[in-house]
Specification:
The chain has helices spanning about 20-35, 40-50, 65-80, 85-90, 115-125, 145-150, 165-180, 225, 230-235, 245-255, 270-280, and strands spanning about 20, 65, 90-95, 100, 135-140, 155-160, 185-190, 205-210, 255-265, 285-290, 295-305. The chain starts with 17 loop residues before the first strand and ends with a strand. β5 (about 135-140), α6 and β6 (about 155-160) form a beta-alpha-beta unit. The protein contains 11 helices and 11 strands. It is globular and about 70 Å long. The chain is an alpha/beta fold and about 300 residues long. Bound molecules: S-adenosylmethionine.
Length: about 300
């Protein structure tokens, strides 16, 4: 039974046995908006869907919640209003066709990186008739790019490098789950992508190197979800945002076979600088700057010359 006038001034629902979902979501969205959350309604819907164990698109089929469900939903909204990332509350973030496990200690994969992922998959089309294609994901975090590529292309060899043990634990968990689900296992390496010896066994053998490295210039203003919850090591790339990208470029040049390609994500202030760094090595052509869906410079691609 729905009890009319069931909200207190706080917007909370009290003494209710059955509550309609739609107004509950509207009130939650207002609360999240007041807390400064950027996509309040979407987040309220995702949290309701997560609680109910259904797709967000099916929420309309769940008209009423029990009092226990309402209490759980309000707890989730409380935590989201504290600017805890949505993905830490649901425990998952998407990349390609995968839902990756994420939480404290690992960077939450972002939708803009899907463009880099799609570019890499496009470049892999047509490779694989003469040799097993090899892909390397530098700075893998949760394993997002490496695992999404391995899922889409079971015929290829995928390596991923991560320096942070906490992030590597998440990547290993995701890798184990995907392997158990039947994907080709990836090779997860502990290491520094700027180390001149990293993955030296793959020198000149790699078809595609992808990387979403730390690239935010130190001191940039960030939302609390990012500043307080993504690991510092995952975010910042020194004063100019290039402190990992700059020394990683020789690694990319060393690993790629002639004709192999790379895609490197970067801060929106650094598109031309990353292109210039690649050009300055003399090892790349076809250097191209790409924008994200918001029209901001987001990743640079290039081809290894002979
Ligand atoms: C922005 S996060 C991206 C993670 C993942 N590629 C994604 O798109 O979700 C950057 C990752 O690089 C790792 N990292 C930072 N410096 C590194 C280095 N020198 N060598 C290897 N990994 C590094 C961080 O720990 C973090 O997991």
């Amino acid at each position: 039974m729905f009890v009319a006038d069931a909200t207190a001034d706080s917007g909370r629902v009290e003494n209710v046995s059955r509550v309609p979902l739609r107004p509950l979501i509207s009130r939650a969205a207002e609360r999240l908006e007041a807390a400064g959350v950027h996509s309040p309604r979407t987040d309220a819907e995702f949290l309701a869907a997560h609680l109910l164990g259904i797709e967000r698109s099916r929420l309309a089929l769940v008209p009423m919640l029990t009092a226990e469900q309402v209490a759980e939903f309000e707890k989730l909204i409380d935590r989201r209003a504290e600017r805890i990332p949505l993905q830490h509350l649901t425990g998952i973030a998407a990349m390609g066709e995968l839902d990756l496990a994420v939480g404290p200690g690992v960077f939450v994969p972002r939708p803009e990186t899907e463009l880099l992922f799609a570019w890499a998959l496009g470049r892999l089309e047509g490779i694989g008739h003469e040799h097993t294609p090899v892909v390397v994901d530098l700075c893998t975090g949760s394993g997002a790019l490496a695992l999404a590529i391995a899922h889409a292309r079971p015929d290829i060899e995928v390596h991923a490098v991560e320096i942070d043990p906490a992030a590597r634990e998440w990547a290993q968990r995701n890798a184990d789950r995907q392997a158990a689900a039947g994907d080709t296992p990836i090779a997860l390496h502990a290491g520094d992508v700027t180390d001149p010896r990293i993955l030296s066994g793959l020198n000149g053998r790699v078809d595609v190197v992808v990387s979403n490295p730390p690239y935010i210039p130190e001191g940039a203003g960030l939302d609390p979800e990012v500043a307080d919850h993504d690991p510092h090591l995952a975010l910042f790339g020194g004063p100019d945002g290039l402190s990992v990208i700059r020394p990683m470029i020789p690694t990319i040049a060393r690993l790629l076979r002639p004709g192999g390609v790379t895609a490197v994500e970067h801060d929106d202030t650094n598109g031309s600088q990353v292109a210039a760094l690649l050009a300055a090595t003399g090892h790349f052509d076809g250097i191209t700057e790409h924008s994200d869906l918001a029209g901001k410079p987001r990743f640079v691609t290039a081809r290894r010359t002979a």
